[in-house]
Structure formats: C-alpha cells, structure tokens
Specification:
Aspartate Aminotransferase, domain 2, globular, 2 domains, Aspartate Aminotransferase, domain 1, four-stranded mixed beta sheet, seven-stranded mixed beta sheet, alpha/beta, binds 4'-deoxy-4'-aminopyridoxal-5'-phosphate
C-alpha cells in the first residue's frame, strides 16, 4: 500500500520520494495506530481536514511551541490548532486558570457568574451590542444564518466561492469546487461539497466571487428581495490568505443596506488575528452580525455569534404563539472551563506587546520565504494577516478563488514532508492553509524554521522542475 504511495511521488523527482520514504520511516507508530483505528474511525481522524495521505501523525504531548508525536519526534508547531492557539500549547497562564476551574467544577449548565465581567470585554473588543456563546465556529455560523432568516423573513444565503464556514448544511457549497462543475468565473455555480444535503438546500444558496461586486449586483437585481444574508470572511483565510481590495467590503455593506439584507462577517479565523480586535474594525466596515471562534478561547472549545441589538435581541424563548424567539441552545455553551480560558486569553495573554513580538517573528518567516522564492526562481509570494501567513505559488496577487484554483498546489506535499522530516510543522494541514505564530514561539524557533525551509526548497525546486515536465 505504501509502496504504491511512494511510487506516486516518482513524478515529483527523487528528492521528494526520499522525503516521503523518510516520513514513512519516522512515523511507524503513527502508521500502526492509523491502520488499527481506521477500521472503526473513517480515515482514522475525527475531522476530515486532519487526514492527509498516506496517514497523519498521531500526537501525544505539546508544550510551548513544541509538539511530540507517538514516535517521539519533536516538532516546532506552526499549525497551532488551525490558528486557534495564539496562546501556544499548555500556556502557563491559561493552565493556571484551567487548574483552578477544574477544582471548582467544569460544567454547571447554570449561567456562570464570570459572564458579568466578560460582557464589557467582549462587546468592546468585538465592537458588538449583544452576543451569545456557542462551542464551535460551525455552530456560530448556523445561528448567524438562522438569525438572518428570522430577521428578514427570507431564506436565500449568498456565499463567496472558496470560503469555508464550517460543517453546517447551508454553507457546504463551493468551498473547493471541481473546475468542471464550478461554472463561469463571473457567474459561479453553487456546487455541493458533500453527500447527504437535500437538493432543496441548493435552491437556497447563491455563489459569488470574492473581490468582485458586479456578479453580486446582478444576483441582487434579480432576487435581492429574497436574500436573507450575505456571508463572507472579511479576509479569506481558507484559500490561502486573500485580502479584500479597497472598497470591496464597503460595497457589500452598501448593497446589504440597500436590499435590507443581513451582512454576516465570519470572523472565526480573522478575529484576534491581527491584534485584539476584528477584521471588521481593521477595515472599518461594520457588519450586522459576526461569528467568532478559534483564538478567542485560548485553545478551549468556545465560539460566539454577536452583532447589532436589533437582530441579536430576537434570540430567546417563545413567549406566545405570536411572539416566537430564535432558538439558541447547547449543553456545553459558555461552560466555565472555556469561559475561564477565554477570560485570561483576552485580559492577560494576548497583550499589545505580545502581538508586536508575534508579528515581528512572522515578518522574519515571510522574509525567509521571499528570499528562497527569489533564490530558486519559484513564482510565489506570501500573503500575511497579523500573526499568520500563507505561501501562494503565484506570480500575480491572487484576488479570488478562481485565481487560486489553477496554481501548482501539489508542490505543497514536497514542502510539507521535507519540513516534517526536519522537525517543523510549517503550517496547518493542507495546501490552502497557513501558519500561525503564538506568544510562545521564539527567535530560535524561527531560525530553525528558516533553516529547515532552506533544505525544503531544494526538494520543492526539484519537484517543480519535474512537475513542469508532466
Ligand atoms: N468559519 C470559518 C471562517 C472557519 O475557518 C471555520 C473553521 N476553520 C469555521 C467557520 C468552522 O469552525 P469550527 O471548525 O470550529 O466548526
């Protein structure tokens, strides 16, 4: 089975084959676990994103910027929980708070007193009137869409091609659609990304390109009065990193007002990414609703949906047959353990000074990539947002998903294996992913990253030559 996998990489040249072989040699125990549990857990993982061929590495311990796998390989981790762990692994401040909470109980399912102190902090940092906590980004998106539909009395959702908003049925469209199905660039077709979603759902989703208002205007002219929400990541962070062009978010805001549509900024990934704030505030555009998750919880399980009072105040129990509230519920919502972690994350760990130092380290990684791209004459650049960066194999700046989909993404594999073999997890898993710095990364970690990268580029450069001959 693995010989066949190795053979697949012959097309990338001997250096890549060698790296894949090394990966197989270094991760024997991971392979054993994978083979054993895949009989019971599909692909041996509990989130599709975690699987990559031939099998992922199984981890057992993490501290600071480091993580160790079951074969006792040590890695400097730049995945950092898909960008959730700006606090780093086992952060001492977070741990102290968690230990205290363990002593006091971790699940009350009565509201927790700390909410009193938290409301000002949250509404201030996120610039929202009201909010409700949930557990995952997907849940927050689900509630955001329900609220938009409740507020407008309409059903249609407009979503950006190439954006990911979690695993809710309504948004599992056109995340990474096959070229043959995606339709024209200016009029993308909505492509379902999973089995098991009713056809009827397809009628409720329209797809638009990022950074291009005209196709959106066309849709709105035709059926704007039936649209409940436009949902976007203000900075796309699930297709590498793609920034909004000047005026784009403002145009969305204007159009949403014009058609009385709820504008949802999905800030699950962008929140706290470039300071103790949201992308909405950094770009100076105020959506009606935001969703936030990942970094806010310091690694614990928590998310929120929040926004203007007019919409958020619809949440609540049904008071009478006529006055129906919007359902929002969850056994684990705002559990004390997560709230404690969130509280210290926002008040003690993610300080201005911490951001400054994380961004400085990020700059060094970006410069490292830029130098190597030049040295090896590989077309590419790094797009950065705050404490994260993504390598884009393109000469020209990518503005939307279509620019991205034809790039030589498979060069990611040689890069990834070569870095893992040198003790660095260079980014989150997947060619569309990015790296994230934490408050626990050091200058020494960055030096090691760049050293490993210099070796890895030898492999990538050879793979590129081979790929070009296909
Ligand atoms: N929205 C965005 C923008 C995301 O990036 C993600 C997860 N990567 C989600 C929603 C879903 O969040 P979760 O995985 O916590 O459900």
């Amino acid at each position: 089975m693995y010989e066949a996998y190795l053979a697949d990489f012959e097309d990338y040249g001997p250096k890549t084959v060698d790296e894949v072989r090394k990966y197989l040699d270094r991760t024997r125990r991971s392979r054993e676990i994978f083979e054993k549990i895949s009989e019971y857990i599909p692909y041996g993982v509990n989130s599709n994103q975690r699987y990559y061929p031939p099998y992922p590495i199984y981890m057992k311990r993490a501290r600071g910027s480091r993580i160790w796998d079951v074969d006792d390989n040590e890695y400097i981790d730049f995945n950092m929980g898909y960008g959730s762990l700006l606090v780093g692994h086992a952060n001492p401040t977070i741990n102290e708070a968690l230990h205290k909470q363990l002593e006091d109980g971790i699940l009350y399912t009565f509201p927790y007193y700390l909410l009193e102190e938290l409301t000002d902090i949250i509404t201030d940092i996120l610039n929202i009137d009201m909010f409700r906590f949930s557990n995952s980004g997907s849940e927050a998106v689900m509630f955001a869409i329900r609220l938009a539909r409740a507020f407008t009395g309409r059903d249609i959702i407009i979503k950006v091609e190439g954006s990911y908003h979690g695993t809710y049925d309504n948004v599992l469209f056109s995340i990474w659609p096959f070229r043959g199905l995606a339709g024209p660039r200016k009029m993308p077709v909505s492509v379902l990304e999973t089995m098991g979603v009713p056809d009827a759902m397809e009628d409720l989703v329209r797809i638009v390109p990022f950074n291009d208002v005209d196709p959106l205007v066309d849709i709105l002219e035709e059926e704007g009065d039936d649209v409940a929400a436009i949902i976007v990541e203000p900075v796309m962070m699930n297709a590498g990193i793609i920034k909004p062009e000047k005026g784009y978010l403002e145009s969305l805001r204007k159009l949403a007002y014009e058609y009385d549509i709820v504008l949802i900024f999905d800030e699950v990934k962008t929140v706290l990414r470039a300071g103790l704030t949201t992308a909405s505030q950094l770009y100076g555009v105020e959506p009606d609703i935001i969703t936030a998750a990942k970094a806010i919880g310091g690694g614990t399980v928590i998310s929120l949906v929040g926004g203007i009072e007019e919409i958020m105040s619809l949440v609540g129990p049904t008071e009478s047959i006529r006055e129906q509230g919007v359902v929002h519920a969850g056994t684990y919502n705002a559990n004390p353990l997560s709230l404690r972690a969130l509280y210290v994350t926002l008040t003690e760990v993610l300080t201005e000074k911490a951001y400054k130092s994380m961004m400085k380290l990020n700059r060094e990684i970006i410069d490292g990539y830029t130098e190597l791209l030049n040295e090896y004459d590989i077309p590419g650049y790094v797009e950065e947002f705050g404490v994260s960066g993504a390598l884009i194999f393109s000469e020209n700046r990518v503005k939307n998903f279509r620019d991205l989909m034809n790039l030589p993404f498979d060069l990611w594999y040689p890069l990834y294996y070569a870095m893992l073999n040198r003790g660095v997890i260079p980014m989150a898993t997947g060619p569309e992913e990015m790296w994230t710095l934490s408050v626990q990364h050091t200058e020494d970690d960055i030096e090691k990253y760049i050293e490993a990268l210099a070796d890895a580029f030898e492999v990538v450069s050879e793979a590129k030559r081979y790929v070009e001959e296909w």
